[in-house]
Fold each of these.
Amino acid sequence: TGSLTRAPGESVTGSPYAILLGSVANANYTINYAGAPFTITKLTVNVTAVAKTKIYGDTDPALTYTFLPTPLPFGDTFSGALARVAGEDVSGSPYAINQGTLVLSTNYTLAYTGASLTITPAVLTVTADPKSSQYSDPDPAFTLTYSGFKFGQTLGTSDVSGAPSLTTNALNTSGPGSYTIFTAVGTLLSSNYSFNLVNGTLTITKEDACAVYSGVYFASTSSPSSSNATITLAVTVYEDVTDGYTGDIRNAEVEFYVDGSLKATKQVGLVTPGFNTVGTAVYDCPVSITGNSQD
């Protein structure tokens, strides 16, 4: 009757443990017992790293793993952590996730399966700066602003090369108004950044000009008994070149007012054909003369 026992212990390092006679006995017999060892071998735990992704310039996500069998016996736990191959550039991605310092006790064999951390490009916003020019002047030099650099980088310290294309459909003959500055990728290149292209606005304002009255100052009726007369109103228009550009006044218009009332709007005609900076506009304005004056 009875049963064998063994020496207490559960660790691999204490193995083998002696198997003892325990409570085995029989009153009719003398038992000669030959013991044997009880061996505890390591439990194999399969650990699999979880693949991770992050955007260039962001902090690393937590490196995690799964394992089998689970849970571990006797409430045992892991110590240490996974680690990845160093690097922050997209061009070096993916980066291997290694076992690092992750371990179990000597009671286990840890079978590790790695994974990778993938770094994807960050978004760099490229915005055309707002610009303005006067009608008939050439387009100003277009410039742009970058936003979204990582690691305190600038255009000069990042891997961005080339330049975007900045264009507009506005011409120097386009009238005053707002026009789009189109932003295209042009020759921009980067492995660490993708590009968010934002258009800008070109505002064309009216051309500066000087107007000098060049018409008559007096009008006469056709006879002493008539009260009707025609006065020739005229204006000479000079393009203002103080902005450094020779403008074009061919599309200019002059409004003629009499006693605060708009009487006519006339197109400017060039004084000398082909010389687009000086023009004139004329309006023969009918007036009624009352009183004793005859001119």
Amino acid sequence: GLSTALALLKGSTTLQTLDLHLRGWRKQRNRRHIGEALAEALAMLKGSTTLQTLELHLRGNQIGDAGAQTLALLKESKTIQTLHLCLCFNRIGVAGAEALATLKESETLQTLYLNLADDQIGDAGAQALATLKESKILRTLHLGLCFNGIKDAGAEALATLKESETLQTLYLNLADNHITEAGAQALATLMESSTLQTLNLDLSRNVIRDARALEVQKSRSNIRDLHLPLDCLCQGPRMSAPIPINCPKRGHYTNIATGEILYDTDLSDTESSESESGSESGWRMEDESSDRE
């Protein structure tokens, strides 16, 4: 079984890179139990003595908070420097986000891709993830947090990532949440970071009707590579906007300013049509773009 295979991989003396795609099946029974068991099996990889890059694409496995807490044990690895965790559609809440934030304790992790799109972390979960700034060695951080019910309090917490002493690259996807001008103004201060060289901030389809704070800060920023789309910030999801490739499609898109349902998508079709999504909106997360099977 999977546990046996993973045990063999853990024992390898030459394995340096491992990329696993283990998407969940909708019709499985006891999926929560299966998800937690999967997380426990994968966490064994922390014992590898050679593994440097680990990519786990676990979309739709319903690992929940318990599974996220187990995966967070990968922080104990003595060799992993780059970690991709694609955990979208997994019913991860605040407790799971708090556990994943402890990856900051890793003694080796320099690059972290964490995709929690369409989970349930809310403001409290965003506040927990903001503590990743405390890592002493993390240089690159990708956070995919679209469709998580994040409001201004969560945005303001994430803005404190600017206090990191080591981050050089930050990709922050907060599309399709409930952030207003106050949250956007706080996030604009990320451009004041003394260490960031690359900043990619996606606030598409929130409820930001006045982007002047972002525009002013962008004009003053010294960040060398700055991507801040300002053309699709307002009025929630729109009929004309392509569905962002780094956010999973949902059953329907709603204008969060008016509550109007704009269009429907059949969830049963999304898994087979992800590659047809547009790539012009926002940024493309590595772990999500490679999660198309």
